[in-house]
Amino acid sequence: MNHLLAAQLTEEAFRPFGTVSDVSDLTGLLTIHAAYEAGEPASEPVLQLVKIESIPQPLTIVRLEIHPHSAQTFLSLDMAPSLVVVCEPNAAGEPDLATARAFIARPTQVVTYNRGVLHHRLTPLKTPAVFAMTMMHSSDGDTVVFDLQEPIAVAWPD
Ligand SMILES: NC(=O)N[C@@H](O)C(=O)O
Ligand code: NI
Predict the structure, then answer these.
(1) What percent of the chain has pLDDT over 90?
(2) What CATH number labels 6-23+37-147?
C-alpha cells in the first residue's frame, strides 16, 4: 500500500496540474479561462450539480481518471473541503505513482484540472456535500479510468 500525506492546496503547487481560484480574496470578477480548455470532440458545455452523501473511510485511492478532451472544474456549494489527488503519467500514459500528490482544497478554492490530468474523482472531506462541476462534454467518451496496481492510503493533518 502506498501512502500519501495531503498538504494544503496552493496555486503554486497545483500549477503543473491546473489552476486554483480562491474566492475568499476575490474582488469583482474573475474569469477562469482554463475552465473550458477543450479539444475537438468536446463541444458541449456542461454544468452539473453533484451531491455526495458519504465517502469510504479510511480513504484509499484505487483508481485515477483523465478527461482527454476537456478541463474540469469543481466548485464547492456548501462549504465542504475536498481532497485533490493528482499525478504525472509515465511514458505509457499511465499513473506514475511516484509523482502522486495529495492536497486539501478549502471550500473557497475553485479547482480546475487541466485537460488530460490524472486525478481522483471528487472527494469531499465533509459529507453530505454539494459541488458544481463544469467541463466541455464530448459524446465519444469523456473519461479514461486507470485502476491502480497498488492502492494509495491518504492521510491529512488534523
Ligand atoms: N462528475 C464527474 O464526471 N466527476 C468526475 O469526473 C470527477 O473527477 O469527480
Ligand atoms: Ni474527473
Answers:
(1) 92
(2) 2.60.120.480
Residues with CB under 6 A from ligand 1: 48, 50, 72, 119, 121-122, 133, 143
What is the mean pLDDT of the segment spanning 97-115?
Answer: 97
* DSSP run (H or E) holding 102: strand 101-105
The rounded mean pLDDT for the chain is: 96
Ligand 2 midpoint to CA 26 (Å)? 25
The domains of the chain are located at 6-23+37-147
Q: Which atom number of ligand 1 is nearest to the Cα of residue 67?
A: 6
